[in-house]
Every structure is written in C-alpha cells, then in structure tokens.
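Prompt: Have a read of the protein record below and flag anything odd:
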Amino acid sequence: MYLAALLVVIEQALILGRLDLWLYAGGIWVITIGFVRWIEEPSLPTQFGVDYETYRARCLRGCHDGGHGTLRRRLPRSGDGRSALAVGCEEDADGLVRVAV
C-alpha cells in the first residue's frame, strides 16, 4: 500500500514534470520509512511472536558483509544443533548464513 501511494505520486511527477511532486514523493518516502521502522516494526514481535523472530533471522536487513554481494547473519539453532536456513542459503564454517544478492 505504501509503495502504491508513492508510485502514484512519482507517476504524476513524471507525467507533469513538476519538481514539487518529486519533493512530495521524497517526503512520502522518508515518512513511510520512519513509520515502518519506528512504529510498525516494534509492534511485530508482540503481534506474531516466535514466527516473527524466525522471519527476522531470515530477513537479513542490515547485515551486509562489506560489498561482496552476499549477506551474512547468524541464525538461531534448533534442538539438533542445525540452523534453519531459507531456500537458497548456505551456512559458513563460522555458522553465518550467506545469501547471494
């Protein structure tokens, strides 16, 4: 829904060629990121519990390894000592997950 609203404003800015619409789209982007990051995300663990924590472990936001085209993150281990990996992921020898981006 956020993306759709932003795309409508960007479309209008492209069609009409107005700078004020580009600035408005930038404002929508900044406000949306702030809302999602500081209002919606903190409420998700209480709303979804363990399922959300598992998702966060696989989401990999903010865990870039320095520009080598992979993301790394330590995943929680199950009772048998293995980590639950998302499809297409590999685990390093040090227990970090690598995902090609």
Q: What stands out?
A: The first helix runs from residue 2 to 16. Residues 12 and 68 are 37 Å apart (CA to CA). The chain is about 55% helix and 10% strand. Residues 2-48 form one domain.
